Amino acid sequence: MNTAIEELKSLPLSLRLLRHTHEILMSGVRGERKTPGEFRRSQNWIGGASLADAAFIPPHHEDMMDLLSDLEAFWHNDNVAVPHLVRCALSHYQFETIHPFLDGNGRIGRLLITLYLVSHGLLSKPSLYLSDHLEKHRGSYYDALTRVRESNDIGHWVRFFLQAVVETAESGKRTFQRILSLRQDLDAEILKLGRRAENAQQLIFYLYGTPTITVNRAMEILGTKYVPANSLIASLVEMGVLQEVTGFQRNRIFILRRYMDIFRDGN
After folding, report:
1. pTM for the model
2. Under a CB-based contact definition with an 8 Å cutoff, are residues 18 and 31 in contact?
3. pLDDT < 70 stretches in the chain
């Protein structure tokens, strides 16, 4: 996601960008042997053990590039008088129906939603990501896609997609509000550390980006020696700001538990 968004500064939303994003996505994970970064050169299918009992068969690979080129042109066609969120819904449906990769189509298709919104200036950060909502409502999601393929009911799909946007946006807003509230609480608690408050604040700022830390990493961040870094972390643990999670005496890892719980609780 981060790499793709950075590349949008010099590249348009394009098939080239999606291929590169797919190459990164599939490196070192399930499906890495299924031609990362390349469009398929064979027939694939969705559901079932073979083409004979497949739930859906995407277009033949020989027809695929024409369909993808048409989709890419649609992203940049300013003459299409359709709101961007609706265009985004249509783009996601079309991409998933073409199913251009041997694996990872769902993940790239969900990334495409955010990349489209960023590329058209509707988002400055990837703060609206529908993946969690689509996973939670997987049955309804597949049903909505299938209704278009079987009965051309594109309206049902667009309504489902827009509702997903509404609910994800509301969830994101609640998450941001909880983060701001937690930050205010932590700032007040850290003041109790007196002269060490500034170093504690520096650690907490780091933890908002990477919510785990070790004493050695704290030494690097603060530019201090082991004893003061270890003492500061011990104080933060005692205050309930940090929690040790390994149970070890050495190589201990501490987490900003209340921050992580915001995301784990589902708002």
Report:
1. 0.85
2. no
3. 30-32, 265-267
Q: Which amino acid type is present at position 80? A: V
How far apart CA 15 and CA 94 sit, in angstroms, is: 13
Q: Alpha helix locations (H) across 125-196?
A: 131-136, 138-151, 154-190
Residues in the chain: 267
DSSP per-residue string spanning 43-71? ---BSSSSGGG-SB-PPPHHHHHHHHHHH
Rg (CA), the chain: 23
CA 247 to chain centre: 31
**8 Å CB contact between 161 and 197:** no
**By the 8 A CB rule, do 234 and 191 touch?**
no
Question: Which of 175, 236, 250 lies closest to 201, judged by CA?
Answer: 236
Q: What structural domains and CATH numbers belong to the chain? A: 2-129 (1.10.3290.10), 174-264 (1.10.10.10)
Give the DSSP H or E segment for 84.
helix 84-98
What pLDDT is attached to residue 160?
Answer: 98
